[in-house]
Amino acid sequence: MLGSTAVGAAYKNDFSLPGTDSQTATDLFKKHGSDQAGDSVEIVFKYTAGIRNAKGSVEPMLAKVKDMAGVADVRSPFTDASAVSKDGTIGYASVTLDGKTEDVPKEDVAKIIDTAQSIATDHLQVEVGGEAARNAEDKAGPTAELAGIVAALVILVLLFGSLLAASLPLITALFAVGGAIGLIALASLIFTVADFTPPILMLVGLGVGVDYALLIFYRYRHELLAGIQPAEAGRKALDSAGRTVFFAGCTVIVALLGLVALGLGSLQGIALAVAITVLITMAASLVLLPALLALFGKRIQRHVLKQQAKATQKGRTEGNRWRAMARAVQRRPIPTLLVGVIALLALSAPALGMRLGFADSGNDPKETTSRHAYDLLAEGFGPGFNGPLIVLVKGDQEAGKTVQDKLRTTDGVAQASPALPSEDGALSTVFVYPTTSPQAEGTVDLVHHLRDDVAPPLEHSTGAEVLVGGATAASQDVSETLANRLPLFVAVVVGVSSLLLLLVFRSIWIPLKAAILNLLSISAALGVITLVFQHGWFGAQPGPIEAFIPALIFAIVFGLSMDYEVFLISRIHEEWTRTKDPSQSVREGLASTGKVITAAAAIMMFVFGAFVLSNDRMLQQFGLGLAVAILLDAVIIRCLIVPAAMQMLGKRAWWLPAWLDRKLPKVSIERPEHGCP
């Protein structure tokens, strides 16, 4: 962490996707020296007395901007009649940057914003829009992270009744997260790591770190209650719960590394960064936490035994409430199972209509200049003006003119600019403004219509190559590519995880049940995200779901769900091995793990849920999705559906064909001789 502070970081977004029309268009722009190779920002003006009356203030400011670092060209609203609204009160200047948004330093864009807004008055409104302007604006402080830490500490204190005991899992997580963020910051100097990665690392690292440390600490506490001395209790906790943590951590890492195969630069960077974070938090739980337990073992032992004595005096036995709940589920397993599954399916249903995309300035907080610019442009020029499609024509000027004439009369197109030639004359560029907003389904349909129905006949008649690009089309390409590749990714992760469970528990039904239920919790979480952020429930602004969200949530939640699955089922398996009584095994397994699973889930739910407080739409979706998935997994699945399913399966839950049992290698997580009391 200290090293990264001294050296600094170089986070950079990379949304390139080779093989798509939008990426091909961008590459051609660069090759032929077109100004459109660089992204742009718009300086938007509103003057009720008429924008042309503000020329004396606007022109000198634009001259300053043109000479600034990172600027390739500036097009004034006074030299382009189409850059002024029909009523003359709103106009914009296009500032073409000398590279893509991710390549232009934020400091340079921030100076453009400051220079532009320096001429604003009570009567002249000046705002700056575009993706580069969005990225350059100041971000909110770490409110979500702090809220999550406080919530975790409160829950741990309530769970253990001791500030010392509560602080050990949290200290372990914080050290791991600090080390991970520092390491990733240094890695960003060499590799492509997106600039929104650090808050995601904090989010995942805190949740996973506390979760892993808590599972080991809780097993340690059980060993102390059984009369084991602290040193031996630490070894037994590592030899049992430590194996669970190692298995769960490896599952998350495998799932995250699977994201690398999806082939998108920024997503690959996020996946690697989060995988490293999980690896470090897992290592901290297996190395740092045992060291802390060895240091404070005697004090923790005194407190634990004192608590047990008080509970014994009051006639309370730990786990009785969970045993009672398990008995209630076992009396009516079929209704319980049906109610739980139907509830998850109902929540999952909205995910079938999920639209993937990326947030734009229209989703920004209302106080930002990028949002003000977006609203002004929509007011003056129509909703599609904020998301122009850039149609590239690789051919002569006559071909460019023919394409422009056709585009101008195409359904769904509000306006098509004149064909702009590149420096070498080999390309022409037409800006196409849809009649619908950038995130609207109509704009998605227009991109497909232009590519599938309009471009082929034009290419045939002109002999030119016609490509539809621009930021709006590129976002769509990325979203559709991720959506198409996601099923294969899910199948591989589910297959690998199920194989590991098959090896561990020597059962056909356990991995099948785990895979189905984990997928149900994830799909239900995606359904909730769709209701809130796509349909605008609870006051959220409607729009598409961030394209990265389903893949990231699946990778992380599937691994965490396996964590709870292994922790619960391994305790049930211990009891089954000892008693061969399936009903009692379920009751004792839930009694031993229900409290810690619920506490761990509550901590992660608050840590993840705190990110709904963020101003970043992607982090809001990410935090809500993880929080809902963990809540459903811990409450509905682990406490209701799993006990009901295990009761219905009975002895068949541990069935494995003899021939397969002989061929599979022996793998063990929990050792029966180390059972919890």
Automatic annotation (TrEMBL):
Keyword Cell membrane set for record: yes
SSD domain sequence ranges: 170-295
Protein name: MMPL family transporter
Subcellular location(s) per record: Cell membrane
Membrane-crossing residue ranges in chain numbering: 146-166, 173-194, 200-220, 241-264, 270-296, 337-358, 486-505, 517-535, 547-569, 590-613, 619-641
Membrane topology: Multi-pass membrane protein
UniProt entry keywords in alphabetical sequence: Cell membrane, Membrane, Transmembrane, Transmembrane helix
GO cellular component labels: plasma membrane
